[in-house]
Amino acid sequence: MSISAARLADIAISGGSVLDCHPIGRRGVSIGRLKPRAVAIATFACAACVASGVGADPVDTSSPLAQYRLDTGHSGVTFDVTNAWHSSLTMRFSRIGAELDGFEGVASGRVMVTIDATSLEANAPFVTGIVEGGGMLDVMHYPDIRFVSTRLVRTGPLSCLLTGDLTIRTTTRPVTLAVTFDADPHAPPGTRQTLAFSADGHFSRSAFGLTNWSSAVGDDVHMSIRAEFVRERADP
């Protein structure tokens, strides 16, 4: 898959990357280690961004994959928004799940991410209940925030754009995520001891119908993701 520099300049980055895997304890789901299918996207994305430059051919993903587990101490997802009380109001989601479906190459793989909205914690304690309440996320009726990717484009040796559909409550909007990988550009994907990345982007909360408290809380939401996977063992 190739893309020109001019085309890349036209792509608007409006959201942050999503590749975390994390136990969703509220539902009793325990994910002690990443399934090969789930780690394939992290391995592939690193291979796509590291093993070749912008415009290179799709990477062969038929070779055996190593298994990795999420390092929860170095991983997390946050939403930041300006407001009248703090210079920045930060909300962190501590429980996230992710999986990959139909992964066959650069354009055909699909990343599906679920954020447990009930795991939200704000840096201003009184805000947590407000954001979880019926006037905002309404987590009692809509406990999940979902992202399903539709496109992956390499933009450099260690960077990609991941585009997909973000669903909050009942509204779905397209979001493009800017991803930067931490990786040894000379190491094959299966030999790395860690697979780590960070991602940043923005979306409009009013685009998802979250318009309450507009006089005190900004509309632009900065989404930031940091994920680090630790290698456990190679598949036989």
From TrEMBL:
Residues 67-230 form the Lipid/polyisoprenoid-binding YceI-like domain. InterPro entries: Lipid/polyisoprenoid-bd_YceI, TTHA0802/YceI-like_sf. It comes from the Bacteria. Pfam families: YceI (PF04264). This is YceI family protein. It comes from Paraburkholderia acidiphila. The lineage of its organism: Bacteria, Pseudomonadati, Pseudomonadota, Betaproteobacteria, Burkholderiales.
